[in-house]
Amino acid sequence: MRRAGAFLVVALATMTTACGETSPPGVMAAAPSSSSRAAPAPTAAATATADPVDPDPRVGAIFLGGNSLHTCTGAVLDTTAGDLILTAAHCLADGLDASFVPGFSESAQPQEFWHIDSVYLDPRWVSSQDPMADFAVARVSRQDGGSVESAAGGGFAIGPSPGVGTDVVVTGYALGVGGVPVGCSARMAGLERGYPSIRCAGLVDGTSGSPWLSGSTVVGITGGLEGGGCEENVSYAPPFGADVTRVATRAEAGEPGDVAPTAFNADC
């Protein structure tokens, strides 16, 4: 997978060596971010470009195996308990500790990390890593209590994939240590083998799980076909509809989480 899967394979191998159509109830839209710098204006035909943007406190970086390297992106959901985030399923693996920092920019203090406690997945992903089900909802917490939604000042609703020509804003974090988010505004292109797509250069490794936003609603995340895309200027999303809503509903109801796979297919 172009966006995060290769790192997960390496990280898991390293750990083994070292050690031996509607939103669900409560998933409501929140007020727009107060971020002062907007992503570039959408373009209908030409490929847009992702540029550095001010952090949105409701979008953050996902760290795997420690508090230094961030490998994916996630988004805070608006829920009753305020403790859920949304990301790509291929960003999380069983046996690899993970945490989330909303509004990450350059660095974070230990108290800003939210531990990922449980993961909720579509059965198709658990059984066969079906790219159509490359989405995950995760419950997070930290030692001093509180909710990630309160810390972020709000969260997003989940909505169905929009039609071709709909403007979406994508914000994500490139794979690495430190850094700031990049943002891109683009228009939904045609389906590729059933996957929604956008044309935007600069959504590089690490942007898996980045929310595709229409207002305050997440209508897609970078992932799905080829783990989000093998070409640098095209990104894909798993289709959003009743399936992702069911996963979010199970998570909000507090049902037992799922065991994520530990091996990933490399499509690129």
From TrEMBL:
Single GO BP term: proteolysis
Any Pfam family the entry gives: Trypsin_2
Feature: compositional bias, Low complexity: 29-52
InterPro entries: Peptidase_S1_PA, Peptidase_S1_PA_chymotrypsin, TRYPSIN_HIS
Region (Disordered): 23-52
Gene3D superfamilies: Trypsin-like serine proteases
Sorted UniProt keywords: Hydrolase, Protease, Signal
Signal peptide start-end: 1-20
Molecular function as annotated in GO: serine-type endopeptidase activity
Protein name as annotated: Serine protease
Source organism of this protein record: Mycolicibacterium hodleri
Higher taxonomy: Bacteria, Bacillati, Actinomycetota, Actinomycetes, Mycobacteriales
